[in-house]
Amino acid sequence: MLLEVRGLSTAYQGLLAIQGVSIEVDTGEIVVVAGANGAGKSTLLKSISGMERPRSGEVVFDGARIDGLPGHAITARGIAYVPENKRLFPRLSVSDNLRLGSYLHRKEADREAPLERVFTLFPRLKERLPQRAGTLSGGEQQMLAIGRALMTRPRLLMLDEPSLGLAPLIVAEVMRTVARLRDEGVAILLVEQNARAALQIADHGYVLDGGSVVLQGDSRTLQGDARVVETYLGTLAVDDAPPSRAASGR
Amino acid sequence: MTTQALVQVLASGLLMGLIYALIAVGLSLIFGLMDVVNFAHGEFLMLAMYATFGLVLVTQLDPVVLMPLVAALLFVLGAAAYLGVVRFAMRAKANQGMVQIFATFGLAILLQGAAQYLFTPDYRNVQNTWLGGRTLDLGGIFLPWPQIFGAFVSLAAFGGLHLLMSRTDFGRALEATREDQGAVALVGIDRNRVFALGWGLGAALVGLAGAVLAIFYYIHPQVGASFALIAYVTVALGGFGSVGGALVAGIIVGLVEAVTAVILPPALKSIGVYALYLAVVFARPQGLFGRL
Ligand SMILES: Nc1ncnc2c1ncn2[C@@H]1O[C@H](COP(=O)(O)OP(=O)(O)O)[C@@H](O)[C@H]1O
Ligand SMILES: [Mg+2]
Which among A16, A19, A43, A46 is the best mutation to test ligand 1's pocket, defined by most ligand atoms within 8 Å of the CB? Predict the structure, then answer.
C-alpha cells in the first residue's frame, strides 16, 4: 500500500475536526473522499501533507511514518498537494511557478521531462508562460496548480475540490486529466463535495461525516448505494446539465 | 554658486547616496522577505567595520581585499541572528509584531554592549590603506577614492542582487517565500532555510558597506546608529521591501544631504533628509516603489 492513514485525528483549538480516520491509497488508484461542507475533508489532506499537525494516529507513506514531518519534507518524499485555494504565487509568472515546482529537482536535464508532461496535459499553460499566475482564469489556475504539483514528481497527488467554481466542461477536462495521471502511475487522492463526477473515474471512495468515515467501498458500489446518492451526492445529476452553457474558462 | 561647485556637491552626494543604498538594501531585503524590521541592522554595520579593522591588523591586507571575507563573516552573523533569535520570536502566539521588534532591538543592545566591552569605546581607524585620504581630481572637481570605490561596490552589489533574484532558483525561492511563506512547502522548499539565507544575504550586503566605510570613517561601538537611521529613512522612502527602491532612495538621500549641507550649517545637514522623508510619508506612505 502506498499511503496508509490509520486512526488520524486533528483538532483546531482543541476541537476535533477529524477523528480516527483511516484510509488507504495504492499506486494505480484514484481514491475519492466525499462528504458535506465541514465534514473534515480538507483537514484530512492538510494533516497528511504536514500543513496541520495531527493530534494522534499514523500516516505511513511507502512504508515509512511521515506524520509529524514538516510539509516541505513530505513533499520531498513524493506527496504533492493542491489545496482548495491552490496557493499559487500570483505575482510570479506561470513559468516561474512551474520552475518552483521543480525546486527539488533543479538540474536542467531533470526539468525537461516533467515540464513536457505538464505541457502535454495542459497545452494552454504553454501559451501563458510569461503571464502572472494571478491573472489566469479559474480553470487555468487549477491547471497550473496541478502542473506545479506534478513538477515535484510525486507518487501521490492530493487534490482538494479541484472542480470547485469551474464550468462543467472544465470539470470534465480536469477529471480526464486525473484519470490519465492515474494511468501513468500517479496515485490520486481526490476530495470532492460533489463527488458524482469524481466517483465516475474513481476506484475507491470514502464518505466523511462529522469528521469520521461513515461509508467506504469501491466506487461502483458507492454510486449504486441509494443512501450515498441521496445523502451526499444530491438528487440532481450534474451530468444532466446542458453542456452548451459551459463557459470557455477564460 | 558656480557650476563647478554645484557639480562637486552633486557628485559627492551621489557617491555617498550609493553607499547609503548599499547600507540600506539588506534591511529592505529582509523586510520584504518576511515583514520583519531588523533593528540590529546598524550593529551589523558596526561589527562589519570592526571585522575589517581586526582583519587588517591580523592579516596586514587592504580592506579592499578583505571585503569578501567581511561579507562572508556577516553572512554567518545574519543567518545566526535568524536561526538563534528571530526564528523563535516568530513563533510568538500573540503580538508577533511587537515580539519581533523587541527581539531584534534586544539583539542590537546586546551587540552594542558586547562591542563596548570587547573593543572598548575608543575610536579606531584603519590606517595606511590604498584608498584612504586619496582623491581624484576631475578638472577641479575632487572626489575621494574611498567613496568612488564604495559607489562602484554598491552598483556591483545591486547588479549582482538583481541577477540573483531574477535568474537563479534561490532568487525564485526568495520571491516565492515573500509572496506566500506558507505555500513554499508545497514545492518542497523549507522556508526556515530561505529565511536564514535571506538574513545571511542581507547581512552580507551591509558587510560590504561596512568594509567600505571602515576605510574612511571612525569605528566605535555606536557608529551603526547614525547610519542605521539613514538606512531606515532610505528604506521607508524607497518603499519597505523594494530593492530597486532602496537604490533610488539612497541616491536621493545622498543628494539631498549634500545639498542641505551647503545651504544650512553642517550640523543641520540631516534636516533636509528628514524633511523629505516626512513629505513622502504624507504624500505617499508606501514609499516611492512600495506596495501596500
Ligand atoms: N483553520 C481552522 N480553524 C478552526 N477550525 C477549522 C479550521 N479549518 C477547518 N475548521 C473546522 O474543521 C471542520 C472541518 O473543516 P474542513 O476540513 O475544512 O471540512 P471540509 O473540507 O470537509 O469542508 C469544520 O467544522 C471547520 O469549521
Ligand atoms: Mg474543504
Answer: A43
